[in-house]
Design brief:
The chain has 206 residues and is α+β, with helices and mostly antiparallel strands. It has one domain: CBS-domain. The protein has five helices and four strands.
Length: 206
């Protein structure tokens, strides 16, 4: 069953404002998804999220500092960090969450600033606890529709509550473009292996 929990922060929803570039990418995703919506049975396995998701996911824990999360986001050039406890997904932290936290700290001074210093602020205080997810068996068309509808840049992939991967807007664009070429050329080309790649990319994250 797909894990689509109600959100405590519906306005943010992992990052509600994707920006004009993100919207254009999302529209391109939907155009390609509509083209690929009905395909031959031989394409079914490579139309699944599991064939395109990144398995080596950069994560943080709820008690990690916001400063540590910021370091990871910058080091790996990503925009979201799933928050996990013993492998189980408990939330997500975006680059916007971090920017907002830093902006709040900058507005304060003296003793009041200590509580919002990113060196002392924990991830759990600024993360979004309820996360929109997909499962490995979901189709990439379904994932593309979720990204388009919710204006987000990535979806954690779970089995039960355990994080097993992540799929981003750029992953889906790559998948859909390659599958469109496959359909056009009627060639039997499997998706290139990406399972050992680190969790990084241009729209990682919104």
């Amino acid at each position: 069953m797909r894990n689509q929990h109600a959100r405590e922060r519906p306005v943010r929803l992992q990052e509600r404002n994707a920006g004009s570039t993100g919207n254009a990418a999302a529209l391109a995703l939907m155009n390609l998804a509509n083209f690929l919506r009905v395909g031959p049975a031989s394409e079914e396995s490579i139309m699944e999220v599991r064939s395109w998701m990144t398995r080596d996911v950069r994560t943080v824990s709820p008690l990690d500092s916001v400063a540590r999360a910021k370091q990871l986001l910058e080091e790996y050039r990503i925009n979201q960090l799933p928050v996990v406890v013993e492998g189980k997904l408990v939330g997500i932290l975006t680059d916007r969450d971090v920017r907002d936290a830093l902006a709040s700290a900058a507005e304060l001074s003296g003793p009041a600033r200590q509580g919002v210093d990113p060196r002392h602020m924990t991830v759990e205080t600024v993360m979004t606890p309820h996360v929109l997810t997909v499962v490995p068996e979901d189709s990439i068309v379904y994932a593309a529709r979720l990204l388009r509808r919710e204006r987000i840049g990535a979806l954690p992939v779970v089995e039960g509550s355990r994080l097993v991967g992540i799929i981003t807007r750029s992953d889906l664009l790559e998948a859909l473009v390659e599958l469109a070429a496959l359909r056009s050329d009627s060639s039997n080309v499997a998706p290139r292996a990406r399972f050992d790649e680190p969790f990084a990319g241009t729209d990682q994250h919104p």
